[in-house]
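Handover notes (outgoing to incoming on-call)

Open items:
1. NAD(P)/FAD-dependent oxidoreductase: sequence verified, structure written out, both below. Nothing else pending on this one.
2. Nothing else urgent.
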Amino acid sequence: MAEENIREFDVIVVGAGAVGENVADRVARGGLTTAIVEAELVGGECSYWACIPSKALLRPGTALHAAQSVPGAADAVTKVLDAAPVLKYRDYFTNKWQDDGAVQWLVDTGIELVRGRARITGPREVQVDGKDGNSYSLKAHHAVVVATGSTPVMPKIEGLRDVPYWTTRGATSARSIPERFVVLGGGVAGVELAQAFARLGSSVTLVARGRLLSTFPEEAARLVAAGLRADGVDLRLGTDTTRVEHDADHAFTVTLGDGTTVGCEQLLVATGRRPNLDNLGLENVGLDAEEGKALRLTTDSSGLVEGTASDGTSGLWLYAAGDAAGSALLTHQGKYEARAAGDAIVARAKGTLHGAPKPWSPQAKTADEYAIPSVVFTDPELASVGPSLQQALQKGINATTVEVPINVSGAQLHSENYEGWAQLVVDEDHKVVVGATFAGPGVAELLHGATIAIVGEVPLDRLWHAVPSFPTISEVWLRLLEKYGL
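NAD(P)/FAD-dependent oxidoreductase structure tokens:
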């Protein structure tokens, strides 16, 4: 390193993805000087390699299928996608992997960008190996925030480390569509990208150790599986992958637990993610991984990391938000946590917050306990918020469920042969909704109404008077409440 620069700020944010940007924005709005450190692109994984490009790849196929499902419209549209304009559409949303617009936003907001790799060297101290060849010693007066996102978890499969497989980054930034494509993993990323590539012309095989989307209700996951099969995806469920090989002709051979093999030109490994905390220097402030386990950070409702070594004056300085905090690996939830952490940092710096924030205050991520929404953007969509029945019972809630098929007039008008399913999880002691799941075309837009009902603890007899418009898919709320007995 050519030169060391020592600089001081009120707050240092490590990671300039969506979460880090939101923390920095909140503390800058609060009048605190702020630096944000990023080794890659400002905007992070979501903007360039995850949420945005994957949805840009999925949306054209969903729109085409929606038109093909409506008599009259079906006669006016093509039968297959042209991959080239879809990839161009994806490139538009990623700004061709250039972050100049995001950098300009930082400048306009008054946030200082330090490009490089950060390492925490002590309480409120961050060392940055700058991409410009310089070394930067940053000191924070109030807080350091870890917002470094997550990284893929690689399964232990013989031969995998020796082959040029894709993670989600490779798939979402693909320049061409492989003729044969194998996806390892039946979670959200696996099913979304399997369907996207199938609709773009790949012959897709998806391999999963269990069933698809195992954290969602099975009835809802079955509808997604049917949608994948309708697009020609070969589902190999309940089977392990034992070996992966790659030959001189650039072809993969994937051996499954039942002894069968699958060949392909490209392999995607989408078997989960973990908090990206490697090489951050957290051991320098008393945060060490347990032997044989990956390091995880535990935070309070304001994002303060628990177990941080004090510097002799105050231990209230290290925060984590988003995937790095490891609660729910979802961009919208991470941004919510970021807003809470940013507001808490400002309030503590100004002396208006002492101790833990009150639940439901702007400085507390209360929704982590009540209502985390999640959408799988396959066709059909799967949208869920709050605990499942089993999770609710484990929490000690006296819970029951009510389920109905989505066959209201709005669904029938939406598409020919519409198939959908809806479920509410009800707290019988308080007569409120605590969880909801919807599966079917276009159901993602139902989810926020359910989230509001859960967060607002709207009694069922009051919810009965929230009249759904006719003819919309939202009429399923009426059918659910009628089946419940209202």
